[in-house]
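Researcher: Here's a chain I'd like modeled. Treat it as a single chain, no partners, no ligands.
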Amino acid sequence: MKQLREILEGLRQGALSVEEALEKLSYLPYEKRGPLRLDHHRALRKHFPEVIYGPGKTLEELETVVESFLEKEVSLLITRLDPKTATALKDRFPVLEYHSRARLLGWRPERVPLRGRLAVVAAGAADQPVAEEARVAAEYFGNFTETFYDVGVAGLHRLLPEVKRLRQARALIVVAGMEGALPSVVAGLVDRPVIAVPTSVGYGAHFGGLAPLLAMLNTCALGVAVVNIDNGIGAAYFASIINQMVEEENGQKRSQKKG
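Model: Modeled as a single isolated chain. Structure tokens:
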């Protein structure tokens, strides 16, 4: 509280600019509740609030997290949450939304307009839980998101009619298991950043996602970044940063034209 008062006093007296005050606010201490240290100011540094990883936390710890975020009206997103725990949390906090296939529990203090355009592309139906994690998270981060599901390389003719729409996205999240070839194919067709997500879907020599991970890392198509196995949330965050940067640049250009 003392640090916050000093920043506000400096702003009031003109000793700090608005930009300097925001910079200082972004590094204020976190909130400590028991063993938890909740970073409510992360959005000032990273554009998006802290994302909570659900597994390994007790129901009581998750209740503490939710209570704190709701009190401060900070957008909340908890990942990889099983239905039983999600139901218990929703019973206590009815405002929460649970997306069962994505295994995401979230809340936003207000509905912000979705900006830009991201594409989420999934090879098969078995990859959709990871793809849905990416889609729901991307929308929570404020991005307009379009999905293209079940367009894997086993039936490439399903993908080709969608190429024109894929090229309209600012970034594409491409999710695939098995041999992990889809991101390479998509990257060869578009001039946008492709974030490849290997999934743990496949048979024995697939090694729980290692085979597609290595295939994506070894792609011959340029413009591909690869996140970890089943990491839809990481892909959504990365794509959102790209979209955010483009939005900021477009906003600056509009301001210059008006000026």
